[in-house]
User: Fold this.
Amino acid sequence: MSDSRAQEVPTPAFELSYNGKSITADIARHALSVSYTDHLSGESDELDVELEDVDGRWLDGWYPDKGATLALKLGYRGAALVAAGSFDIDEVEYRSPPSTVRIRALATGVQHPLRTKNGRAYEQITLQALAQRIAKRHRMKLQGKIEAVNIDRLTQYHETDLQFLQRVADQHGYVCKVMDNNRKLVFWKRSDLMQSASVRRYTPAQLMAWQAQDQLSKVPAQVDVSYHDPAKRALRTASARADAKAPGGKASSADTVKLTRKAAGKRQAEQMAAAELERRQLDRTRMSITVDGSPQLAAGSNIDLDGFGKLSGRYQIQRASHRISRQDGYVCELELKRVAAGVAQEKRKTP
Assistant:
C-alpha cells in the first residue's frame, strides 16, 4: 500500500432526522453545510443546516415546519457517528440568487415553556433539590453529581427558570445546561471539569489557525463576599485571594471584587468567594483555534496545547462549533480558556 493510500483523508459524514424520520439520503446532495454549536453554559446549543434549492422544493412541499424536531449525528464515514442531540426548528431563512434555504434549530426547544420569566421564592432548600424541582417542572431528567449545598433563601427575580438556575449554580461553582431538546438538565462542578483528563493534544503545526489573549484586567487579586450572620446580627466578610505569579508575569490585577451574597455561614461564603475567583481566573488566558473536526471536541472537555511557549497548557473548551461543508470538509472552531499552565520551552534567556 502506498503512503498516500495509508494516509488517506477520512470522509466526513452526518445523519439528519426530521420528526424522527431519517432525511439524510433525501438532502445529502443538496447540503451546502451542516453546523452544530455546543456551548458549555449560558446559551442554547444550536443546529444550522444550509441547503441549495435549485428547483424551489424548499418553498413548497419541503418547507420545514417551525417547531419540528431535527436530530443530528456526525463524524466520519466508516466509524460510528456521534449523536449531537435533538433540536427544535426556530427559524427558516431563504435567499436568492442563488436559491438557498437555511434552517436554524435550538436544543432548548421553542415548544417548551423554559423561556417564560417567573418570580418565585425558595426557602430551606439544597442546590440538588432546586435543580430537581426545576427539572421536574419542565419534564427533564437531571444528570450530574451535585454536592450538599444548603441554601436558606433564594429569590427568582423575573428570570426564566434556566437563567435563575444558572445564576445560582454559578455562585456555588457549578455550570449547567439544557440538552437534547429539553430532555436533559445536566450539571457539572466547574473544578471537576477543570481537573478532568485531556481528550486531545495539539501543537502549532496541527492547527489551521489560532489566536490568543493573555490579560489581567478581568482577573481580580481578591474576591470578598459579604453575608449576614444571624447569630451575631452582623455583616461578615469571607475572602479568596489569587496567586501572585503566573506564566508571563503577574497572575491578577490589583482589584478586589466585592459581592453581597446570602450564605448559610462562613464556610459557604468562603466557598462562594473561591467559586467566583475561580470563574474569573478562567478569563486570564483564552485561545481560539481551528482544527480538523472531531466529535470528541465537546464543550467542557479539556485539550492540551504544547509548543506554544508561555501560552502552553491545558485548556477547557467553552464553545465548540462543528461544521461539515462541501468546501472545507469537517472543521471545528474552539473557544478555549486555560485551566492549567504548561511548561514553557525557552529557546533563549530574556536579556
